[in-house]
Amino acid sequence: MAALRTSPIFTALEAHSPEWGEHAGMRVALRLRAENAANVDTLALTDVSSLVRTGLKGPGAVRWLEAQEIPVPQGFNRWVPLPEGGLVARLARTEFLIEDGWAGGPVARLAAALRTTAPGVYPVPRQDCAIDICGANAPDLFAETCAVPFALDPPEARIVTLTTMVGVGVTVLRRDVQGRPCWRLWCDGTSGPYLWETLTSIAAEHGGGPMGVRVLHGDISQPVAGTQGGRP
């Protein structure tokens, strides 16, 4: 059996004695010990690094995506949803991030196609730490940790912001979940532990904290046998 992938913030999550599950070949924290379900409406941070993603860039990227029948955001620093629940984010004129939804999507197909020669198209590996930050108090957290007021952007504008948060370079967009305000944030995996620990510490001051994926995203995984409240 192939080894499971590991989230960049696995160790930080393990400290909460989670109920572990598996999604897309990665261990995911379904529930955390002593998590407060009410935080999902106040301020909750959830690791969503298991979602599969890929990137590409280059002068031929737009035409190549269109040939693959992938919707392309018309404006720079914008995003569009995918039918399976994923998204396509346009990070610059010719650079894109594509991420699957919980039920899958086109990333595996695109990644395989990118391994062949495509003039003017260059793959960009994505080994991100990805975090969903949800709840009414999320804008207070952002105001304290980032100089760019992206929380004021209307959700219907589908804006993608590239900025820094507590000194870490991040890409962030708003995508509400179950009617709750929610922002998805990506950063380099090596910066993930510091960013997670810093944000969860500040979130506690705003009445929030970390949470497993199940409360916000539902049953995206079956529990891993023998891992209730401990190391898998």
Report on the architecture of this protein.
This protein is of the alpha+beta class. It has 2 domains: 18-50 and 127-212, Probable tRNA modification gtpase trme, domain 1 (Gyrase A, domain 2); 54-124, Alpha-Beta Plaits (2-Layer Sandwich), CATH 3.30.70. The protein has 7 helices and 14 strands. A 6-stranded mixed β-sheet has the order 10-11-12-9-3-13.
Give keywords.
disordered C terminus, single chain, Alpha-Beta Plaits, six-stranded mixed β-sheet, five-stranded antiparallel β-sheet, Gyrase A, domain 2, alpha+beta, 2 domains, 232 residues, globular
Give the structure's gist in a few sentences.
This protein has 232 residues and is an alpha+beta fold.
Number of helices: 7
Unreliable stretches covering 5 or more consecutive residues: 225-232
**What does the main sheet amount to?**
6 strands, mixed
What number of domains? Answer: 2
Sheet with most strands: strand arrangement: 10-11-12-9-3-13
Tell me the β content: 25-35%
* CATH superfamily (homologous) name of the largest domain: Probable tRNA modification gtpase trme, domain 1
Helix content: 10-25%
Which CATH class of the largest domain? Alpha Beta
Q: How many strands in all?
A: 14
The CATH topology assignment of the largest domain is Gyrase A, domain 2
